[in-house]
Amino acid sequence: MADIESLSEAMKAISVSTELVEEELKPHLDVLLNLLLEKKKGTAEKIVSSGVLPILAQVLRKKSPLTSQVTLMVAEMAREAAVRERCIEAGLVTALVPLLNSPDQDQLLHTGRAIGRICFENAVQQTQLVENGVIPRLVAIMQQYPENDPLVNVCLLALCNLADVDAAREALVEVGVAEVLTYQLKRAPDAERRHLILEVLGSLGESDALKLQFVEAGVPEALSEMIRTLQGGSDTHDLCSIKVASNLIVTLLLGDESMQKCFGEGTGMVYQDVLSWLQSANTELQLSGALAVANFARNDSNCVKMLDLGVVPRILDLLEQHVAEGDVSVQHAGLSALRNLAIPASNKVRMLEDGVTERIRTLLRSDMPPVQFKLLGTLRMMVDGQEEAASVLGKDEVLLARVMEWCEAKDHAGVRGEANRLLAALIRHSRNPEVIHTVIKADGVQHLISMATSEHVIMQNEALVALAIASAIDIEAVQEPFRDADLLPTLQKMLDDPVVAVEVKFSALGLICSLANSSMLREQITSLNLRNTLSKLSAHTSTKLAKQADTVMAVLSETA
């Protein structure tokens, strides 16, 4: 009861004060502050309801000896979410912002806490704070007082809350925030500070300009060093820091320039650490390591260098660890890395010599669509332009049987598409009669014909080219399967359809030329009256297509 009375008296005395005389106000402010510090329930709401907030704003603007006390009072009141809007309406935020220029560290601490609490989760106020120039001040305070942990903490929290404001990121590009955050990361005294800095870095790392600044300031190296220090333990906070820090390094590598700086021609500390993650017992680090390798393998020169330095066996070892009951994300990331590394033609040859295709075939047993999808894409990249590899894989009945299953994957269009594309690639790049016979035996012809009617032009063309190669190499072997799978009626529909792309029709005409070498299929061409379709195309607006149609009609006349 005494507390309520003293609170009422103090608020009444403050509300009637007109001169803001320090001696008069201080005892009453002491009463309010003490009750707030004692966490007396309802105190903040009562103070706000009393109407004294405008007077407190006046005291703050006057910058009197009472300023620090009032700032602390506002900071304590603003712990209560219910009073924050009233604080804004009373002009307390605009009165507090200039106080961020104070030379007094305690004043800065109270001001930062007060503003941070009042504007918490308030997008409008946060945008106004940025417009009022708080970003340079927050960074400057951390530069001036880097060892004042409570004050640094307040500034980091503020940056964390403001990091999603676009204008804040733009402002931070100009003020050297990367160096400040790197320094604080290196001296972070505990897990809480670490997590706060990592959260700020994570939000700001989405900006390309800041991404490069972070790399130039040594953020990836600081993160890598932190991971090395924390590795091997079982503390949940440390494991969380390792996960966030390694993910952040992967994000920073998304920028081409920043990635190249971290690579350092294969000698960069970050690249070396990433390789060690592949052999870590920590699954999160394995995943980040594989994703980082995939990011480093974004240009041919890096890919060649990485192969020279022996990255491939490490990835294969990692994949084999996760074949049975393994982590799907790690398998997916590892295959992404292999696929990127296989893009340069010289790397394909070397990877094939190193037995990569044999080792990743163990993943054929995977039941996980993301792994199946990435495995098919990796194998397709491995055989691209590689006749021998395409021949070896194309004659592998176990592999083809699994590919046939995936060609029918009803619940995963991506897996179905990649399986069909691999099937076509094996024929296109091997040009091998044995491969064609193995595909026929595995009932792959129907899948290629279905692929030719895909909604994707690139897939349609790949299928048509594969079918044309198969018919050119061994028409006797393919004529019956082609007839049974209704290839010619399918081609006729494509040629008659005005929506089908010109380049697809061009490929279809090339295929018909090959099919005309079969007497069995020529009979079908006649019975379908395909000449009528061809004569219409000879008047097509595309002169290239019209000329091709004329050529096919001439071939049919010669073989009649």
TrEMBL record:
<feature type="repeat" description="ARM">
    <location>
        <begin position="133"/>
        <end position="177"/>
    </location>
</feature>
<dbReference type="InterPro" id="IPR011989">
    <property type="entry name" value="ARM-like"/>
</dbReference>
<dbReference type="InterPro" id="IPR016024">
    <property type="entry name" value="ARM-type_fold"/>
</dbReference>
<dbReference type="GO" id="GO:0005783">
    <property type="term" value="C:endoplasmic reticulum"/>
</dbReference>
<dbReference type="InterPro" id="IPR040144">
    <property type="entry name" value="RAP1GDS1"/>
</dbReference>
<dbReference type="GO" id="GO:0048513">
    <property type="term" value="P:animal organ development"/>
</dbReference>
<keyword id="KW-0963">Cytoplasm</keyword>
<dbReference type="GO" id="GO:0005739">
    <property type="term" value="C:mitochondrion"/>
</dbReference>
<dbReference type="InterPro" id="IPR000225">
    <property type="entry name" value="Armadillo"/>
</dbReference>
<keyword id="KW-0496">Mitochondrion</keyword>
<keyword id="KW-0256">Endoplasmic reticulum</keyword>
<dbReference type="Pfam" id="PF00514">
    <property type="entry name" value="Arm"/>
</dbReference>
<protein>
    <submittedName>
        <fullName>Rap1 GTPase-GDP dissociation stimulator 1-like</fullName>
    </submittedName>
</protein>
<dbReference type="GO" id="GO:0005085">
    <property type="term" value="F:guanyl-nucleotide exchange factor activity"/>
</dbReference>
<dbReference type="GO" id="GO:0005829">
    <property type="term" value="C:cytosol"/>
</dbReference>
